[in-house]
Design brief:
Elements lengths: L3 H22 L8 H26 L5 H7 L7 H14 L6 H19 L4 H9 L11 H28 L2
Length: 171
């Protein structure tokens, strides 16, 4: 089953990676400070990553018991509880991701929200900084991008495995 939003996010992921490589290898752009380039890459990546994960949860919702605990992520509740419940859903299925992935995903949600809404919540900024990310949209670096990608890949793969298992069980 294809979905335009999941396909779009997948394309965005591919092209952001290609653009990063092109920019870093370009004879003129290579002179641009990494702080400028990687801050832009991170802001775009975090927007795509959080949107993509949330799209997978919404689109792959089968409306039955096999996905119901994951689908509660989209219910109105605090971001902290969303992440806690998502972690519990993964663990119920034997998917024991590094706990740091969930903590970083919460930081990514806060970064994305601050970027999209052009405003930091002081408590969310504090959490982001406590996770080792900058509290300023202009201060990301390559290590931050690598972490963002690790979080995205971990959660994407976990959701993909759950979706595949559910599709098999529904037959």
């Amino acid at each position: 089953m294809t979905n335009e939003f999941i396909d779009a996010y997948s394309d965005d992921q591919i092209y952001l990676t290609l653009i990063k490589d092109l920019v870093n290898d370009h004879p003129v752009e290579v002179a641009v400070p990494d702080s400028i380039k990687y801050s832009a890459f991170c802001r775009l990546w975090v927007s795509m990553a959080v949107g993509s994960i949330e799209s997978m949860i919404k689109v792959w919702n089968t409306g039955d018991e096999l996905w119901s605990d994951i689908a509660t992520y989209l219910n109105r509740k605090s971001n902290e509880n969303r992440i806690k419940d998502l972690k519990a859903s993964f663990e119920r299925r034997g998917l024991n991701l590094d706990p740091e992935i969930y903590k970083d995903f919460l930081a990514l949600k806060y970064i994305r929200n601050a970027y999209i809404h052009s405003d930091w919540s002081p408590s969310q900024r504090s959490y982001v900084v406590s996770r080792g990310f900058p509290g300023n949209m202009m201060q990301f670096n390559k290590e931050h991008l690598d972490r963002m990608q690790k979080v995205y890949i971990g959660l994407m793969n976990g959701l993909g495995m759950i979706n595949a298992l559910n599709a098999t069980l529904r037959r």
